[in-house]
Design a protein that fits this description.
It is a single chain. The protein is an alpha+beta fold and 253 residues long. The protein has two domains: 21-41 and 138-226, Outer membrane lipoprotein wza domain like (Outer membrane lipoprotein wza fold like), CATH 3.10.560.10; 50-135, wza like fold, CATH 3.30.1950.10. It has helices spanning 2-17, 21-24, 60-63, 78-84, 109-122, 161-167, 222-227, 234-252; strands at residues 50-56, 86-87, 93-96, 100-103, 130-135, 139-144, 150-153, 175-186, 189-195, 215-220. Strands 7-6-10-8-9 form a five-stranded mixed beta sheet. The longest helix has 19 residues, at 234-252. InterPro entries: Poly_export (IPR049712), Poly_export_N (IPR003715), SLBB_dom (IPR054765). The chain crosses the membrane at residues 230-251. This is Polysaccharide biosynthesis/export family protein. Belongs to the BexD/CtrA/VexA family.
Length: 253
């Protein structure tokens, strides 16, 4: 009788400790997702952004006065490039060589590049100029139940939330996949969005792409929370139950 009770208790505990696929697998409704067009919203330039603005022309020497970095210097790392970049002021402006102040308020990097090009040509400074603008200090912070929590920099024009989580080595098995927090500060406002990584219904929203300074928080799942308690770990519970039942068996003999 006692052996049967012990076996039953072990089976119950094992069943409770097992996690179903619905709690672990990503994008479980992917077969139902049929998004034909990706609605990417380009990030607007914010104060304290550091921009790289490179002007080039068919005659390279003509563009030298309009570049803070020589076009021949190609071995700089990202930190060195930041020192030579254009820091956006709290007033949403940058000071560009020869051309003077540019307002970055409510502008994307593409829009700023077009404005620089237009002013170069309208002022008869350069003809057939190409202007390449990049954000140098874009970063995201990923915290919680991931393998490599921390702050990560990126220079790509756009990265998605799954890509960002890949920077952190993916979620740990103890991470809550159905309620990942995306904290975003933009234009003086803070928003907190809850993302369910087991679904795809958020793919066609502005939250699919991360923006500079976003914070992603992966909370622990119920198993991890319970394991932090006194007898939350299934192994501990089984050990205690085994000792109790063994004691009962010995006493009853």
């Amino acid at each position: 009788m006692y052996k049967s009770s012990l076996i039953l208790l072990v089976l119950v505990m094992l069943l409770q400790s097992c996690k179903s696929k619905k709690e672990i697998l990503y994008f479980q409704d992917a077969q139902n997702s049929n998004i034909e067009k990706i609605n990417y919203q380009e990030t607007k330039i914010q104060p304290n952004d550091i921009l790289s603005i490179i002007v080039s022309t068919p005659l390279p020497e003509a563009a030298i006065p309009y570049n803070s970095q020589s076009l021949g210097e190609t071995n700089f790392n990202i930190e060195a490039l930041k020192l030579q970049g254009y820091l956006v002021s709290e007033e949403h402006t940058i000071n560009f060589p020869i051309l003077g102040l540019f307002s970055t308020k409510d502008k994307t990097i593409d829009a700023l590049g077009l404005e620089v090009k237009q002013r170069l040509e309208d002022g008869d400074h350069l003809k057939d100029a190409t202007v390449n603008v990049r954000l140098l200090n874009a970063k995201i912070t990923i915290l919680g139940e991931v393998k490599l929590p921390g702050t990560f920099t990126f220079t790509e024009r756009s990265i998605t939330v799954p890509q960002a989580l890949g920077y952190a080595g993916d979620l740990a098995i103890t991470g809550e996949r159905k309620d990942v927090l995306l904290i975003r500060e933009e234009n003086g406002k803070r928003s907190i969005t809850h993302i369910d990584l087991t679904k795809t219904d958020w793919f066609d929203t502005p939250n699919y792409y991360v923006k500079p300074n976003d914070v992603i928080v992966v909370n622990p799942n119920n198993t991890k929370v319970k394991s932090a308690g006194f007898i939350g770990n299934a192994g501990v519970v089984l050990t205690i139950a085994s000792l109790v039942l063994s004691s009962i068996v010995l006493i009853s003999r």
